[in-house]
Amino acid sequence: MKVAYVFATPIAAAYKLGQMILPQLEAGVHGVEVVGMFFFDDNTYVLRAGDPVGERLAKVAAEKNILLMMCDMCALQRQLAVGQPRWCDAEGKGRLEPAEVSAHGTVAGVQVGCFPDLYAALSGNPPDQVITL
After folding, report:
1. Which of 6, 76, 93, 113 sits a CA distance of 20 to 30 A from 83?
2. In the chain, what is the straight-line distance between the N-terminal and C-terminal CA atoms, in Å?
């Protein structure tokens, strides 16, 4: 089975990912193929360059071809990205063409986007289940 994780609740990435999922992935005993992880709010902080959990995760993600993506608005608000929100303008109206935004000061391999970007990135290797933590 293939899964994607969405880290949406407070400290989900630091605790559930950092102390449960990541050690299992590193040991090869997680039991499913993880194809992607999407980070919201303060969960994006584990993706900062130099963060111990983030650095370990980046290594595992590269080895296992796991998509790491953080919410564009969340990343911009936390100075973990530069540019503009991908799919809405400064007034909160939807865009027809995506704006440029990129990770800044993060571990290797992190992408920045919103749901359309997540769906597109996972379309070639879609999960069977999405788990929100």
Report:
1. 6
2. 18
